[in-house]
Amino acid sequence: MINENAGSVRVRVPASTANLGPGFDTLGMSLSLYIWVEMRRAERTTVHFAGEGFEGIPADKRNLIYKVAQLVFEEAGESVPELEIGMRSDIPLTRGLGSSASAIIAGMAAANALIGSPLSKERLFDLATGLERHPDNVGASLFGGIIAAAWDGERADYVRIEPPQALKVLVLIPEFELATSEARAVLPQQLSIQDAVYNISRSSLLTAALFSGRLDLLASAMRDRLHQPYRAALVPGMEKILEQASDHGALGAALSGAGPTLLAFVDRNGGRHGELETFMQSVMREHGIEARALWLEPDLEGAVCETGSRSDLFPELIKGEISS
Ligand SMILES: Nc1ncnc2c1ncn2[C@@H]1O[C@H](COP(=O)(O)OP(=O)(O)O)[C@@H](O)[C@H]1O
Ligand SMILES: N[C@@H](CCOP(=O)(O)O)C(=O)O
């Protein structure tokens, strides 16, 4: 059982949606689904999972959160070899909602807080991007809001954009998993100049549109020729949903990250939200796929340290019904 001792830190980190269509490996937005991680020094390393969704995740020193914590300690010149780690998450794994990025940021932010926060957020961003290999998800999970970022292999430069107030998000999460590595393996090694220009122009337009609140431009600015067409075969129903979402009230639609989740932006002050959800669900069902629809908000805070009693977050752990 987890001890009710002082000396622990707790962080809350949001999920993210990457690419937003054309901004492959560069644009990301954080979403109001969260992972919570508690961490403290211990005599022996243990990893506890509260709630569901952690099937297959190692509960020992092979755990991603333990590993990234050690990276932070090493970078800061500290040694904390044994840790007690507890986690709870609402973010589904391998669905294109950045669970690995959220876990990396949560592990890093908790470890940094545990040793008095010697590393800046910018340094954590570089370390996290080095692990994830693309800055879109980790940037959004760390800073919140919308992130436009470029990674040169060592350093990630970024600008945070405050999401337009009217923006609301519908995600449709299919029941099947799709590992990001698998969805990257289907991408071509080369693109034509026409497709490159197509994507650069839309990604630039999308960034400017989000910055200036031009929601009327999202439908055309979110089109993509770099990754979505190649991933379509992995996500039945995707093509039809992306093509027709605007006819059912969406401001724009995209594959979320590497998929299989699909994302639509809507105007929170507009109507037809129910129509859009029904349309997206029905297309998935035409392909025999059950999917969960969630209405989310852009998260504005990114990774935050939280206070509060352990029993709020981990009632199962406190009662002793642990899995580790
Ligand atoms: N809380 C967590 N603790 C440890 N590993 C995690 C956690 N969350 C995600 N992961 C790792 O990340 C993998 C999913 O990453 P990925 O395939 O990139 O999908 P996505 O990031 O879209 O959910 C999981 O299979 C698991 O290995
Ligand atoms: N830019 C990456 C984003 C992967 O996001 P995930 O949420 O699916 O891990 C890509 O498109 O491969």
TrEMBL record:
Q: State where the protein is found.
A: Cytoplasm
HAMAP family with a match to the protein in the record: Homoser_kinase
The segment(s) forming the GHMP kinase N-terminal domain are 63-145
Q: Which GO terms describe its molecular function?
A: homoserine kinase activity
Q: State its role.
A: Catalyzes the ATP-dependent phosphorylation of L-homoserine to L-homoserine phosphate.
**Reactions mediated catalytically:** L-homoserine + ATP = O-phospho-L-homoserine + ADP + H(+)
User: Under which EC number(s) is this enzyme classified?
Assistant: 2.7.1.39
Task: Give the organism, scientific name.
Answer: Saccharibacillus alkalitolerans
Q: Which PROSITE patterns match?
A: GHMP_KINASES_ATP
Q: Member of which family?
A: Belongs to the GHMP kinase family. Homoserine kinase subfamily.
User: Which sites bind ATP?
Assistant: 92-102
The UniProt entry, under InterPro entries, shows: GHMP_kinase_C_dom, GHMP_kinase_C_sf, GHMP_kinase_N_dom, GHMP_knse_ATP-bd_CS, Homoserine_kinase, Ribosomal_Su5_D2-typ_SF, Ribsml_uS5_D2-typ_fold_subgr
Per the UniProt record, one Pfam family is: GHMP_kinases_C
Report the NCBIfam families cross-referenced here.
PRK01212.1-4, thrB
Tell me the protein's name. Homoserine kinase
Looking at the record's lineage, which domain of life comes first? Bacteria
Which residues belong to any copy of the GHMP kinase C-terminal domain?
A: 208-267
The opening ranks of the lineage are: Bacteria, Bacillati, Bacillota, Bacilli, Bacillales
Query: In which pathway is this protein known to take part?
Result: Amino-acid biosynthesis; L-threonine biosynthesis; L-threonine from L-aspartate: step 4/5
Question: Where is the major localization of this protein?
Answer: cytoplasm
For this UniProt record, the keywords arranged alphabetically read as follows: Amino-acid biosynthesis, ATP-binding, Cytoplasm, Kinase, Nucleotide-binding, Threonine biosynthesis, Transferase
